[in-house]
Amino acid sequence: MKDFIIPPMDLQDDRDMGTPARVGAPVTLTIDGFSVTVPEGTSVMRASAELGIDVPKLCASDNMEAFGSCRLCVVEIEGRRGTPASCTTPVTEGMVVHTQSSKIRKIRKGVMELYISDHPLDCLTCSANGDCELQDQAGAVGLREVRYTSGENHYDPANNGTLAQGDARARGTRGADAADLGNPLFIPKDNSNPYFTYDPSKCIVCSRCVRACEEVQGTFALTIEGRGFDSRVSAGAADDNFLTSDCVSCGACVQACPTATLQEKSVAAMGTPERSVITTCAYCGVGCSFKAEMQGDELVRMTPWKHGKANRGHSCVKGRFAYGYANHTDRILNPMIRDTIDEPWREVSWEEALGFAAKRMRGLQEKYGKKSIGVITSSRCTNEETYLVQKLTRAVFHNNNTDTCARVCHSPTGYGLGQTYGTSAGTQDFDSVEHTDVAMIIGANPTDGHPVFASRLKKRLRAGAKLIVVDPRRIDMVKSAHISAQHHLPLRPGTNVAVVSALAHVIVTEKLYDEAFIRERCDWNEFQEYAEFISQDRHSPEQTESLTGVPSAELRAAARTYATGGNGAIYYGLGVTEHSQGSTTVMGIANLAMLTGNIGRRGVGVNPLRGQNNVQGSCDMGSFPHELPGYRHVKHPDVRAMFEEVWGVPIDPEPGLRIPNMLDAAVEGTFKGLYCQGEDILQSDPDTHHVAAGLAAMECVIVHDLFLNETANYAHVFLPGSSFLEKDGTFTNAERRINRVREVMKPKNGYADWEITQMLANAMGANWTYTHPSQIMDEIAATTPSFANVTYELLEERGSVQWPCNEEHPEGTPLMHVDGFVRGKGRFVVTEYIATDEKSGPRFPLLLTTGRILSQYNVGAQTRRTDNVIWHQEDVLEIHPHDAESRGVNEGDWIKLASRAGETTLRATLTDRVSPGVVYTTFHHPVTQANVITTDFSDWATNCPEYKVTAVQVSPSNGPTDWQEEYNAQAEMSRRILPAAE
User: Fold this and answer.
1) Taking 90 as the threshold, does the pLDDT of residue 17 lie above it?
2) Alpha helices in 379-486 (DSSP H)
3) pLDDT per position as a tens digit, 581-593
4) How far apart are CA 677 and CA 671, in angstroms?
């Protein structure tokens, strides 16, 4: 395939070097007469590749350790007997290697002849034609004929099947045609996975797929079963296939396969790609880089880019395969308007839709005041698009009524880390995990929410690092293939602060803290005050055990492991932030890192795992009502002056409304208009009844999205959005990495999202003249200190950078707080535990917590419109068998889930993943509307909703609740679209 990479990165070598790179003392050797110097431990194969000498190979790949099974890469080494495999032979000083000789050529040709003799020769019609390593290597070794004839020990090319005569494990017969061949058994293709096929007839048993599943993904779902001719890849037990096995469809095996044994169905259907564009995944906050491989303007497949610094060539099922939503028939491609929400939609031109929206929004301001309208930015859109939306409200609406879903998930991160360290982001890069000795996961589920990072963490755990998991559920990281946590602290939902304080209590009272670090890097007087507070007996594990449910001995052991185990890194997620004390917990986590000196070097730090692709970026871009881009408060005259000079308009010094305030004001009659880009607040925000009431009370709701989502039920204007494949820009991932998003295809709706926002602004009287997102980034850099040196040219040159990127750090900052904290001295904050107002009792005795699942993403608007639904067709409630038995609930039963806020129905699944008294569900399907259950309680500092603690009752149900039926009827009515005029 010809790569058309935008931009061409001359320094990036996409060749497969055969074996991984090493770090060590320099070693000089001679290969085919050429001298080369490489690090100690480098293989002869990789050293040859460094010289541009490609040694033939089939079982080797540079993202896995050498295996040495194919014997195609043999070389001669002066002074040594035989012909060793170059992939498993490390270089030595003065070594003299010959990669070409008549002897080697004869061996390689003979080896390849054996492979081809067992391989179907259907190259012209094979889906891997032109993209097959076996085909390429046969040419490389000069194989022109095969002397062997078919027999019982070889594949029969005429039948294109796997002959397995006498093999009892075979799962079918070839039918009538088999009679002429002695009735051999035939193993058919496995088409069970929606995205790729397994054809055993084309397997050369190189084991690359098995090793990729083990070494790269860490799932250990694949094995080689049988011996000799009967050897083949197996996905689990005898009756398993690639769908029913432990396979998580990450695509590592497909990418590793050198033949068409494992092949994307899209390639089989559309043909081999001819060009590719490097872009960034639009799912979770890991920010994986992909090659979007194309035929013309059609996307054939997404392949993880080996030079992506966040994913290092790996992927998950969502980024790798779940891109089909961009072409789904549900997608709206034409603007639509309606006067009232009980009318059907009617398609109109862009000019009419934008004119209608502008006239309504200006009319509302004239009638109700300039603060009667506002915006919601998106964590799915680019930095440039998000920047323009917050600029719209400040420079065109002339108020600060801007908020974002990032506040609904991670605003406590910004507040907590800002208070303690002086910056609102994680401290490390993902590569740092390779140096971690003890990892603590708090309130996160990496295997489901951030699977590519989870694979990297699991690899480190298999190498000997220790793991502490703090979570109400027994997530996969607690125990799965070849890893297990040293400590699992299954705390009661809502008691995060108490658990973190108990960990700190042990560290302080047992004097496990790093006094030298604290004296040098933190305020010693503040530490002494904090130490006095945290040393009180009420914070001890013994005193808090009855509150948290965590055994005191286990908690003490976990604290000692973290404090004394070497490099300690904390990774946390929404299970920390989405609480009434989310900000307090973040500050407590920051305290733990400072106590132990685990900050400012590789392998340590405090690392929030952002849920959506651009949560970090939407915060950086000033999406909060009190902060301009760069986390600077609107009350500061010097900050406003900078933007006023660039924008040419005055900026209101008063903070605006957050989403809950907008909804409250709407119900009260003072907030009347909303422009919502790329968010579905009716499904994603808490207390669905209140959200619906607020939206219904507004007189103009503009929804800018790909699909008619749940919020659009209450919209008056629908502006069709563009997918990440159809736009240029940048995303900022969880490690502060600014990654380029590149246009893979032209927008199907006609415009990228930033262009639509600009057109709306201009329709309301602005005079914006951007012609490319790079100009928006230039404006961001001119006004935001942490982005001061960021340009598209720099990103094209380096691939990506991590902010701060400015004069002091012109190439970005992988590690924060190396020589000192951004705020100067690190600040210890007293973290008093205050119980949430949401409490269980006789009426609602269980505690509900929520989360995500691997195959689905957020509210499911994208993943539900792909084949990922095969793994998760509905939200279900996890309930402990004891709680289920006492309520008469069996596996798969419909149950009613009720809280003080509302009720819904869904199916139950019985599991001991949750403790008695705790239930768990996801929120990916709107038919369930799980957030009708959640309350309006929120974090004391940021209003981040308390999704993770809701008192509920579970009881058997015969069907949907009255509210669900009413909601579904209203949703169906609201999505009517009048047929286009003739």
Assistant:
1) yes
2) 383-391, 405-420, 446-449, 451-462
3) 989 999 999 999 9
4) 18
DSSP 904: E
- Please give the C-alpha separations between residue 777 and each of 382, 391, 793, in angstroms, as whole numbers: 11, 13, 11
Bond into 7 cis (ω within 30): yes
What per-residue confidence (pLDDT) applies to 186? 60
Altogether, the residues listed in the chain come to a count of 982
Residue-level pLDDT at 292? 96
Query: What does DSSP say about strands 373-377 and 673-677: parallel, antiparallel, or unpaired?
Result: parallel
Residue 778: pLDDT over 60: yes
CA distances from 233 to 62, 114, 244, 259, 885 (A): 21, 19, 15, 13, 42
Confidence of residue 171 (pLDDT cuts 50, 70, 90): very low
For residue 969, give every residue at least 6 positions away whose Cβ sits within 8 Å of its Cβ, in sequence order, or none.
Answer: none
Strand partners, 403: 376
Whole-number Cα distances in Å, 212 to 208, 321, 474: 6, 17, 26
For 719, phi then psi, to 5°, come to -105, 115
Q: Cα–Cα distance between 281 and 141 in angstroms, integer?
A: 38
Which contiguous run of DSSP H or E holds residue 883?
helix 881-886
Residue located via tokens 């009659």: 669
Residue 413, pLDDT above cutoff 50: yes
Per-residue pLDDT tens over the stretch 20-36: 999 999 999 999 999 99
Statement: residue 210 has pLDDT above 90: yes
Task: Assign 151 a pLDDT band (cuts: 50, 70, 90).
Answer: low
Which of 319-323, 615-619, 775-779, 924-928 has the lowest average pLDDT?
A: 924-928
Q: What is the pLDDT of residue 156?
A: 43
Residue 198 backbone phi and psi in degrees, to 5: -120, 115
Residue pair 878/909 in contact (Cβ under 8 Å)? The answer is: yes
Q: What is the DSSP string of 514-527?
A: -HHHHHHHB-HHHH
Region 433-440 average pLDDT:
96
Give the closest residue to 847 by CA, choosing from 909, 939, 921, 926.
921
| 878 contacts: CB under 8 Å, gap ≥ 6 | 473, 909, 911, 913, 914, 919, 920, 921
> What DSSP assignment string belongs to 29-86?
EEETTEEEEEETT-BHHHHHHHTT-----SS--TTS-----S--SB-EETTS-S--BT
Identify the DSSP state of 217: I
What is the DSSP code (8-state) at residue 736? Answer: S
